[in-house]
Structures are given as C-alpha cells and as structure tokens.
Amino acid sequence: MKKLALALSVLATISSPAMAEGNAEAGKTKAIVCSACHGVDGNSMIDMYPKLAGQHSTYLEKQLHDFRSAAQTGGKEGRMDPIMGGMSVALSDQDIADLAAFYATQEHKDIDVKDVPELGAQLYKNGDATRGITACIACHGPQGKGAELAGFPALNGQHANYIKIQLNKFHDTNRNNDLNGMMQDVAKKLNSDDIEALSKYISNLK
C-alpha cells in the first residue's frame, strides 16, 4: 500500500514528457505487421499474445517505448522481450503514438471463462491482508478497466494465459517495468494457485 500511495503521489505532482499525438488511421496501416500475433483489430486469437483492442493509448505507448529501450540497451533499460524488441527497435516516436491510437480505438471483445475459482474474486476484490497482498481492484477497478491517467492498464477480457505469463514474470522479477515496482511487490507474494485463479477471474471480467 505504501508503494501504491507513493506512486500515485508522484503521478499527481510530476508532468509527463511531451508525447507525439497519435493518428489512428496512420496506425491502422502500420499495425498490419502486428496482426499476425495481435489480430487485425487488436483482438488476438492466440492466448500467449495480449489483446490490445481498447487498451489505454498511454499504456500502449509506454510498453512500446520500453520494448524499444530494452532492445537498444541490451536489456539494461525498459522491458526485455525477444519478439517485441525486434518489432519495436526501428519504430519512431510517431509510429508508436499512431499504433497506440489505433489499438485504443478498436472495440474490445470479452471472453467467457469457465470454472473460475472463487479464490480469484477474493484476491481481486479484497487481497489478502495476512500475506500483505493488496487487492487488484485498488488500481484496476471493479470491472478491470484500469485508470489511464495513473498508468494502470485495462485487464478485463484479456487472455487468462497472457495474464498468467505476466504475473509469473513479475513474480520472478523477469519483468520490471512496472511503476515503483508495485506489480513485482504484489506478484512475489502470490503462489501458483493464486496466479491461476486471478488470471481466470480477470479474464472473465466484463
């Protein structure tokens, strides 16, 4: 909770660097190369790749900048990923802004998940005070729509497998581009059953 409060206070007091203004129509053309993994409209059919449709444009921009930064610095900065590093390394700031604008304007398609463990709802809504686990709802909201101004992504309807992969990466500190280490702090306290249950619950949010 201390990290969450600190991060929110920082966000409230600092100004973001100037970002290029995205053009969704230009982004549509540039996104053709992305469609193999993320789908033509950003609704990926492959569950190891994230659905991008309807995601906050500022979050998408940050991730692309982080992928590009990692590729340019050999992983010393940003978010390291062998596929996305190669895809983003040659993108300009304008390309990134256009792609983010395109995906943000696409209609998000929900997912119906069967056999969602009750544990998922408990952790998402209430956390677990005995283990120091903050409720996911605090940042991502009751419907999983996140908060763009705070930099918290929408999670509702995301592939459960993708969510599981990312939670495991945060847990193992293989992904560390989260604001103030908040996701690492939460994920390291989750066990495999927690992650499985949360992934299914979040994916099923409408």
TrEMBL record:
Q: Supply the InterPro entries for this chain.
A: Cyt_c-like_dom (IPR009056), Cyt_c-like_dom_sf (IPR036909), Cytochrome_c4-like (IPR024167), Cytochrome_c_Oxidase_Subunit (IPR050597)
Q: Name one Pfam family in it.
A: Cytochrom_C
Q: What is its main location?
A: periplasm
UniProt keyword annotations, A-Z: Electron transport, Heme, Iron, Metal-binding, Periplasm, Signal, Transport
List the molecular function annotations (GO) for this entry. Answer: electron transfer activity; heme binding; iron ion binding
Name of this chain's protein:
Cytochrome c4
What the entry lists under SUPFAM superfamilies is as follows:
Cytochrome c
Signal peptide annotation: 1-20
